[in-house]
């Protein structure tokens, strides 16, 4: 097989190897992706629970303040009944003074209750916002998880198709060239064959000597980059040399 044919087969082999690697990366990372997506849903669900817990605590505080307010009001009512039965001015003024103190407490509790009710209004808004966000995120993420699951169901078939194509290309390449390809692939993150454009290797982005560039264009033999040692090739598009 001629050098151009060998290069063509090598390029096809690298393409399918990259596709296989990408499929396998997706397959291997999918469980962690799903786990991370589900964790995101859980974070938003917990955020709803936290807002609800805060709102519940505010309502409990309001009810406690209202009970205390009722106790002070009841005390005043009871004192009014006592005032009808007092026999001296001293007793009357003492009860009146006590009622004045109770009214001060009542005003203070009413102010506190009003502030708490404002906080409750804000808390109710926070709960609604958190719930809406949770529903939005959950819907989006469930769709993403369904997409990943659907892709995983087809992944073995895709891998099998790519591997069959690889088996067809593999025997077409010289054994020693294959050995060099596999070694380079292991050393260069899977990119053993690199295109050359205007004298620059697209693998390491370094310029090659003009004579090397000319040899690559001729395609009469297998030429490697003197910098990164990748196997070089050029492409012809619409009758023009792209390189």
Outline:
This protein has 243 residues and is mainly alpha-helical.
Describe this structure as you would to a colleague.
The protein has 243 residues and is mostly helical. The protein folds into two domains: 3-172, Helix Hairpins; 175-242, no CATH class. Helix content is 76%, strand content 7%. It is built from four helices and five strands. It has helices at 3-83, 89-169, 175-187, 210-218, and strands at residues 193-197, 200-201, 231-233, 235-237, 240-242. A three-stranded mixed sheet has the order 2-1-3. A two-stranded antiparallel ribbon has the order 4-5. Helix 1 (3-83) packs antiparallel against helix 2 (89-169). The longest helix has 81 residues, at 3-83.
At the fold tier of CATH, the topology name of the largest domain is Helix Hairpins
What is the residue-averaged pLDDT? Answer: 92
CATH class of the largest domain: Mainly Alpha
Q: What sort of overall outline do the alpha carbons produce when their principal axes are compared?
A: rod-shaped
